[in-house]
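WARN  no MSA supplied for this record, continuing single-sequence
INFO  ligand: manganese (II) ion
INFO  echoing inputs
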Amino acid sequence: MNVVDLTTPLSAATPTLELPDPFVNLIDFSIDYQSEYDDRGPFWKHANIHTGEHIGTHIDAPVHWISGRGGKDVSEIEPTRLVGPAVVIDFSERAADDPDLLIDVSDIASWESANGAFPDNCWLLVRTGWDSRGHDRNEFLNKYDGGSHTPGFTAECAQWLAERDEISGVGVETVGIDAGGAASLEPAFPMHYHLLGHDKYGLTSLKNLQRLPSQGAVIVVAPLPIEGGTGSPARVFAFVDSTGGGAR
Ligand code: MN
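INFO  complex generated
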């Protein structure tokens, strides 16, 4: 098995979602060393970290959204839902032409017609090429004309994905599971609304999806089990059969 790390490293430069006024933003990540083999701790180096829950490669738990308010916090998501087959669909060419791309039901359905039905307990991972912008906050958030221009899903597609029993969650390369312009959809932020309202999970800021086969990889999503947490940074690994046995 080859192990592919799908995780964005965490640092003070990690791009985070920026909500407009009057909404309250979470803090950026920072690391604050309390000793560095010095008078404060002669034999060791250790640090406090300060971070929002929703930063870098992270999971959204159902309780994050009003539609999932009675649902699971991040510590309550069963490990069996966090490990499963990955289905990787590549929309990077279309997203390069149209940063406001909204993936629709027909886009996913036509992929399934050509490639087969989704396996049980799967994670749908959507490649848009956005990870190549991750080094630069402005490029990653792509803000102009008063809004963020990043790809996502139509409201119809969000509901359709949320109602499919075989899907555990949806992973994306962008800062959030919804499109940059999703505040204007109905409902607003439909991926958050529908997925989290159906006990499905969102996964963001993934990278290296181009190293996965479209089918045959298994992913492990490992958030911190923060009690009451609405999400958590997560380490995400994919296991790929190095003998080429996985379907492509
Ligand atoms: Mn989030």
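The chain has one domain: 2-7+53-240.
INFO  checksum written, moving to next record
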